[in-house]
Structures are given as structure tokens and as C-alpha cells.
Amino acid sequence: MDYVKPGEVLGAMIETGENKANLSILQLLVKGFLGGAILAFATTLALTATQQTSLGIVGAVIFPVGFVIIVLLGLELVTGSFALIPLAVLERRVSVKRMLSSFGWVILGHVIGCAVYAILYGLTITKMGTDLSHPLVQALIQTSEAKTLAYKHMGGSGLALVTIKAVLCNWMVTLGVVMAMTSKSTAGKIAAMWLPILIFFAQGFEHAVVNMFVIPAGMLLGANVSLADWWLWNQIPVLIGNFLGGVVFTGLMLYVAQKGTLRHKVGVRAAATETVEPDGRALSVAGERL
Question: What are φ and ψ of residue 83, in 5° steps?
Fold first, then answer.
């Protein structure tokens, strides 16, 4: 059967977190670059669909295509790693320093990938900077200002609001990452991960990597947003909120819920691979313990 049981999914989460943390800097940068650019592609696709149909839900339904590509190709999305690598740290397979280093290099890759796509897309919809009449120009400008200046005008309440929206967002995004592990088939993975991503996008929650594209893209097109507005009133609090949402509500809660199952499976597997001689000495079937 395609279905993977929850206890096995937890083991896959920990192993995946360990593997992600042990990637080289070049791999983290390249995978982060591709992950950021592909999610930016999906964002403009969703904005285009929303503009053409005047229905936000249509954009939300098709946006997960970018997430699916990233997961199936094994690329990096730091928001997904927020739920996985901390579990590897909890299991003492990865150090905190290694985790933070992984996050940092992937974020840098995201910023570069999103910036490259923002420049190329901006040149496309403005016909090499000669025509600002394309409806997506104003959509990106308005989105950029709404994601920064609107929170800035609210002051401290704005920071709290953007952080909460980021927590809710990555609760669903990381759930999408985990749901992809519940099936062994490609079709099953796509269907499982599609649902949580649709939920977050349809409700306008705050996703750090999406914002690494839409905010600077709007700035390039003329939005009245500064670098300080971008990072202080959105990017930094959203990264913090995304981390909290991923590690607390998906990573740690699933870890607590399924940890007993994981230990049981490990114990059964160990017992099944060992025999004991009359003198009590354990022999491994694989010959690893003598």
C-alpha cells in the first residue's frame, strides 16, 4: 500500500532533517536559490489567476504547484526545514550550530533566487521598463505595501499581527511537508501536500519565502517601501513566526504524539536482527556486533 504510518513518518522527518543539515554550503545555496525562484514562479501564477478571474480562491488552488515541484525535486525551502532539522537536533544527530548555518545559507539562496526572478519578471510585465500598464504591476506594488506599511502604521500591534499570521502560515506549510511523507506514490504525495498549502495561501497568511519575492518585486516596480520597512516590518518577524509555527505546532507536537511509536519500532527492529548465544553474547545477523 502507498500509505505510510505516522510512526514511520516521524522517523522520516528526523532523517530528512539530518540529511538537510549535512548538505554542503554550495548545495544549500543552489537548492535554496531554486526553491525561492520556483515559489516565486508559483506566486505570479497565482496572482495572474486571481487577476483574471477576480477570485482569490482560484489562485490559492493553483499556488501549491510550486511547492509540489520543490518537494518532489528535493530542493530546499527553509520554512519546511523549520519543522524537520530541530527534530534531528532533539535526537542529537545535528548540532544547533549546524542547524542555524543550514537555515542561514538556504535563506541567502532564497533571497538571491527570488531577486533574480523579480528582476526578470519585472522586465517582462513592463516590456523592458517601458510600459507599466500590466495589471500585475499594480498588484505587486499594492501587495508589497500591504505587507509592510500596513503593519508599520499599526506599530507594535502590527508586529504582533504579522508574527501571528506567520505562525499560522507555517503550521500549514510544514504540515504539507510532512503530509508528502505519508505516501510512497508520486500522485499520493502531490494530493497530500496540496491541501495544507491551499489552506494557508487562501487565507492570506505570511510566508517568508513568498515575501522574499513579492516585497522586493513591488519595490522594483515603484512601491513606497524601503529596505528597513521590508525587513523590520515583515521579513524578520515573519521568519520568526514561521520558525515558531513549524517547530512548535508541527515538529514538536508530532514528535511528542508519535515518539512512543518510533521507539517501539526501533526496539522491535533491533530485536529482530539479533540472536543470543548460550553464553549471553549478542550476535548481529548483519555481523555488525560481535
Answer: -100, -15
Residue with cell 477576480: 54
- The label of the residue with cell 508574527 reads 163
- The rounded average pLDDT for each run of 10 residues, N- to C-terminus, in the chain (290 residues) is 89 97 98 98 98 96 98 98 98 97 98 98 97 96 98 98 98 98 96 96 97 98 98 98 98 93 52 40 35
- Write the DSSP symbol of residue 107: H
What share of residues in the chain are helix, strand, coil (percent, to 5)? 80, 5, 20
Per the structure block, which three cell numbers stand in for 230? 521590508
207: alpha, beta or left? (left if phi > 0; alpha if psi -120 to 50)? beta
The secondary structure of residue 3, as a DSSP letter, is: B
| Helical axes 236-244 vs 78-90, angle rounded to 10° | 50
The predicted pLDDT at position 260 comes to 79
Q: What are phi and psi of 284, to 5 degrees?
A: -90, 140
Q: What is the pTM of this model?
A: 0.90
Residue whose C-alpha is closest to residue 59's, from 46, 71, 48, 68:
46
Rounded to a whole number, what is the distance in angstroms from the first to the last CA of the chain? 36
The CA-based diameter of the chain, rounded to the nearest angstrom, is 86
**108: exposed, middle or buried (C-beta count within 10 Å: 0-12, 13-18, 19+)?**
middle
